[in-house]
Amino acid sequence: MEVIRALPFRPRSLHPGKTIGFVPTMGYLHEGHLSLLRRARAENDVVVLSIFVNPLQFGPNEDFDKYPRDEERDLAMAREAGVDYVFLPDARVMYPRPILTTVKVSGITERMCGASRPGHFEGVATVVLKLFNIVQPDRAYFGLKDLQQVAVVQRMVEDLNVPVDIVPCPTVREADGLALSSRNVYLSAEERRQALVLSESLRLAQGWMMEDDSLTVSELRERIERHLSTAPMAQIDYVEVTVFPELRQLAPDETVGRLRAGSQLVIALAVRFGRTRLIDNALIPKKGE
Amino acid sequence: MEVIRALPFRPRSLHPGKTIGFVPTMGYLHEGHLSLLRRARAENDVVVLSIFVNPLQFGPNEDFDKYPRDEERDLAMAREAGVDYVFLPDARVMYPRPILTTVKVSGITERMCGASRPGHFEGVATVVLKLFNIVQPDRAYFGLKDLQQVAVVQRMVEDLNVPVDIVPCPTVREADGLALSSRNVYLSAEERRQALVLSESLRLAQGWMMEDDSLTVSELRERIERHLSTAPMAQIDYVEVTVFPELRQLAPDETVGRLRAGSQLVIALAVRFGRTRLIDNALIPKKGE
Fold first, then answer.
1. Is A116 a residue whose pLDDT tops 80?
2. What is the pTM of this model?
3. Nearest chain A CA: its distance from B146 CA (Å)
4. A101 and B126 in contact by Cβ < 8 A?
5. Does residue A289 surpass a pLDDT of 90?
6. Same domain for B24 and B162?
7. Residue A154 pLDDT grade (very low, low, confident, very high; cuts 50, 70, 90)
8. In A, what residues contact B, Cβ < 8 A?
């Protein structure tokens, strides 16, 4: 395994005719990242992992400075997962001078995390496009835990004819249901316990939808909010019922039965526990799929 | 020579290990485009020409509908110039559904044509990036007549790590000095005669700068405006004295002598004759270069 900290880095020239699988991350790797790396390893000749905590996608009051980092552990895990190259640039490598170019995906970014974190998805789209241009992978692997990110990257790739296949991969969870996230390390023991309310709500919501086709979008949201509120420390950022990958606003009186006939429904949550913001979601397949 | 009207078009897969030179145009080819094609032909194994009148870079009151087109003549000229592939998509190929993704280069686009044509350079940057992703060239050739476009594309490529070398090429002129442009065909005989005032002003301005290092930016602009006004049909859009490639606003009392010591100066003009808007510019090398 080779660790690359500077440009130029041109894996495609080093391996002509080989397929390249790419997993872009912010490091502090967990089992979710490893599932992406394993899939990339199985499907490609060469596997590239990038680790870069991208300042461009953090707001001024967000956790850029305290975002967890553990390079040594990350490199050991990457080696274990059979990674060929770890691209580990610092900010001066990625942004040698102030970046004037912004990549913006409108529509899809207006709601959910896009509304709570202004500028976040411009930062994501811009850095992902930069990394794609550097690594030039055949396939790139993204976890569906960051569902809006997957939708944004997929749409950017289609709109700009970027020659990369985006492979969305299922969310990996702890045994008790908590979605894995590098930010889980911020949680106190009590917050960690109460954070289960996210995955519980999603499970309950799927049950309610199966039972009752006439349930409306607004009723479903209210029930989820009610369940989230059973955790005293939970501060709801958003509860969204929408369709994937458009993520558009739905009429509150639309019924889940009608929606599920034509679209892939999504329930997406963002909830704060103290200073930690957690997200989770469930993708509901179209009826008959 | 092959004419490609649909996607996928993957010249890189068709010619592994070969270099690809790319000339993106809006068609209605003239000697300026041919100079780009000849240079691309000389420097690469494979030459790709694209012809696409990009609706995204025209404002609502601009000349998209009447922009001159002559496919048959363009194809004959391309064949003559030794082009291997002409990529000739229509709007449904380039924009199969509404595009949500925009590429914006700030700073450089605020003045000159960016100020006169809001949204123009977002349209240019977005379509150029799409074309780069489709063609995946090693080198792309752009005429310096569209100097701000060259600066925008160059900056986008650097900011986003796009693996393409941008090759700026000198403006080609008629024998009497008029810069070649597909839009020259709009000019009446009298407008064509008076349009010479652009290249004349640039020649005169270079003389004034050589003679007098203490000439200020504002004096130089005034003298140019005065000369442009000797053409009764000329309506000045802008007269800009700035530095390349930053294209930033200069203090009006800076002297050309001081500026030329450290920077490449640019004089850039946009002038309307009736409903036709012409641009031209002169790049002044740094002192001692």
1. yes
2. 0.96
3. 19
4. no
5. no
6. yes
7. very high
8. 7, 10, 16-17, 99-108, 125-126, 129-130, 133-134, 136, 155-156, 159-163
Range of the domain at B65: 2-169
A-B contacts at Cβ under 8 angstroms: 70
Give the list of residues 6+ apart from residue A126 with CB closer than 8 angstroms, or none: A56, A99, A101, A102, A103, B160
Q: Please identify which residue in the block is written with the tokens 């203490």.
A: B214
Outline where B56-215 has alpha helix (H): 71-80, 91-94, 113-116, 120-135, 147-159, 189-194, 196-211
Active site residue B15: no
> pLDDT, tens digit, for every residue of B39-57?
999 999 999 999 999 999 9
Distance in angstroms (rounded) separating the CA atoms of residues A50 and A20: 13
CA A248 – CA A242 distance, rounded (Å): 6
Contact residues, chain B to chain A, C-beta under 8 Å: 7, 16-17, 99-108, 125-126, 129-130, 133-134, 136, 155-156, 159-163
Nearest by Cα to B240 from B62, B115, B121: B115
Q: Is residue A174 one of the residues assigned to a domain?
A: no
Q: What element of type H or E holds A13?
A: helix A11-14
Note whether residue B59 is domain-resident: yes
Based on the domain organization, do A201 and A111 belong to the same domain?
no
Residue B195 lies in a domain: yes
| Residues 6 or more apart whose Cβ sits within 8 Å of residue A102 | A122, A126, B103, B104, B106
Which residue is associated with the tokens 């990257």?
Answer: A153
Task: Compare all CA atoms of chain B with the CA of A13 and give the residue at the minimum distance.
Answer: B17
Please answer whether residues B271 and B277 qualify as being in contact, where contact means their C-beta atoms are separated by less than 8 angstroms: yes
Read off the pLDDT of residues A198-234 as tens digits, 9 standing for 90 and up: 999 999 999 999 999 999 999 999 999 999 999 999 9
CATH code where residue A15 lies: 3.40.50.620
d(CA A203, CA A88): 37
> Structurally, how many domains does chain B consist of?
2
Tens of pLDDT, residue by residue over B73-107, are: 999 999 999 999 999 999 999 999 999 999 999 99
Structure tokens at A92: 């001066």
Per CB-CB distance under 8 Å, the chain A contacts of B101 are 103-106, 125, 155-156, 159-160
Kindly indicate whether the ipTM for this predicted assembly is greater than 0.85, answering yes or no. Answer: yes
Q: Chain B contacts of A156, Cβ < 8 Å?
A: 101
pLDDT in tens, B249-289: 999 999 999 999 989 999 999 999 999 999 999 999 888 77
Is A175 a member of any domain? no
Among residues A185, A225, A172, the alpha carbon closest in space to that of A202 is found at: A225
